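Q: Predict the bound structure with zinc ion.
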Amino acid sequence: MTDSSDDHDDRADWPTPGPNEPVPAWDEYDQLKEAIHDYLDHEPDNPQWNDIWRALAAMMGEYQRDAFVDAFDLAEPAETPCVRRLITGEGSCTCQQKRDWKQRELETIGARDDPPHAPPYRDHSTLWLDESGDPAVYGMHVYPGNVEMVTPSKTADPDQQQRNGWMDITRWAREWGLEVGFLPLSWYNLGSTVHVVFYPPERFRSNLE
Ligand SMILES: [Zn+2]
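A: Predicted complex:
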């Protein structure tokens, strides 16, 4: 077995993992560090909780959600998570009555609808309204494993060509005149999903000439 201090020496030239530890540290920092080490060293009765990110997600999810809402200056979620309202500015949507199974399958890979009610690979999605009650931002939390290597259903693609869904998402956003952001610090199942955010280009460009 290799001495762990040697391991560290070997890695001196490796890419840095981020900020250095604060010097001097303070009590709360040391307590958190110790708690994290203790957690990583223990075996929970339920093995699902072996993943420390699951524990952090349970503790931090709500905080992270509220921080997102503040950062994007949002008021509340719309009743239905329909992205068509973001594209057209419509006051409401009747998604459920309008779309049959085939349309929804096509929608999954970002095939054109007119205009679409959902982005490709939609999962855990929310349409957020601003203070005036207008659609502002559409967010969805996707598991990379469900997006990166996808084999569509026969209905969506008769050849069932494997595809990279991130490409579908960016192409789709451009087709419908939306900006797209990928936030790694998702607040849904933090540490496991990516928060994909769509918004109209003018939203953050109001001060540009
Ligand atoms: Zn709709």
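A: Residues 74-204 form one domain.
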